[in-house]
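Hi U.,

Before I forget, here's the chain from the pilot set. I'm dumping it here mostly so it's searchable later in email.
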Amino acid sequence: MEQNRSIVKLTMVIVMITSFMTPFMGNAINLGIPQMALEFGVGQSLLNWVVTSYLLATAAFLLPFGRLADIMGRKKVFIIGMFLFALTALGCGFAFSFPMLIIFRVLQGIASAMIFGTSMAILTSVVPPKERGKAMGLSAATTYIGLSLGPVLGGLICSTIGWRGIFYFTFILSLVVLSLTLAKLSGEWLGAVDKFDTWGGILWIFGIVLFLYGLTDITAGFQYMVTFILGLTLLIAFVVYETKISNPLLPVRMFMSNRSFTFSNLAALINYSATFALTFLMSLYLQNVQTIGISQSGLILLSQPILMAALSPLAGRLSDRINSQILASLGMAITTLGLFFFIFLDEKTSILLVIINLAFIGLGFAFFSSPNSNAVMSSVDRTLYGVASSTLGTMRLLGQTLSMTIVALITSLGMKNLTLDSPDYVTSFLQSSRTSFIVFTVLCCIGIFASLARGRKLGV
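Structure:
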């Protein structure tokens, strides 16, 4: 019994470090992009691939590696992924050309899929059902700590060592996790003994990459629309194919038979679609409308992830005692109210009110995220933990992409080619942001019903 408790604690430490790494690296790298531009002599359109290449690779391989982990062993896939993540972090740090950096970022995205397609599955396999909410709350808290420290610690690293230091720091964290896993984490966690769906994997990878790539800039030109449609066609073909085989990559029928799994994932998709672009919009509002400096704007925006980090463990523990349907729906309702308030933003809005409302949305997100993750993982059999974890991760990435697409579409229609020094910029921006927040508020309202519709039934 004592040995089991020590494995639970060690697993928690490992998952918490990995949960910190990716959001920290993502936020910190954004600060290093101007230095990359100077060193490699590339423009903004190419620099976007530093982030985009990583996200596309992660989204494409999350589901395949989640299923593969269920078949060949979650710890095994996790270790391979962490080893590759460490190597690619070092490769990014030593990249001597921009194409080399992008290649390593793609490989790092694949490694990230191996880690995050298995880490939550391992945690769910190890932690007793009555303590899962608490464990997921602590994992979520470290994610938000990574988001909070990314701009602060990332800025310090960039100003002292340079952008490469971010990858060196990530490399060291990866070695710590790899060492702990190899030396201390005994045992293996298998799901179903089955064959891997290779053709389904190919359809999914090409379909989701083309779909998300087309979606990221669907308003920019005809080629993006064609890419989006081609990706959507491949994804439809993937779903049809998965219903016809005995060993599917994604058990599509589970969406029809498992109400809790289906609506919990739908709620996650809606939640991220309605909230991810919030930081982007508020950053522009604070700097361009309220004319607040970059560093001060960053500190104001921290009010949301700090509260999320502080309250996620509490929300997780509560989800072990109170039905996740109630907590997640309450969280979504709080988020809806916060988004509704931002519809009325103007030049005279008090900064204190902005900070309070960001914190309020952080409260809502904290009470949604951990209980919803607990609901997803508790709704499936242990043979499908990898698939469940990677499906939830895919919903998150898809929601984030949809959120930015909504803002891009609204601003492109409402602001056209207005520049910052245009006399109508502030008025047009406020109108576009108001429209965006109306859409996000409506989405969140729908999300409340999706969260409530999941029912009370939990799996094993």
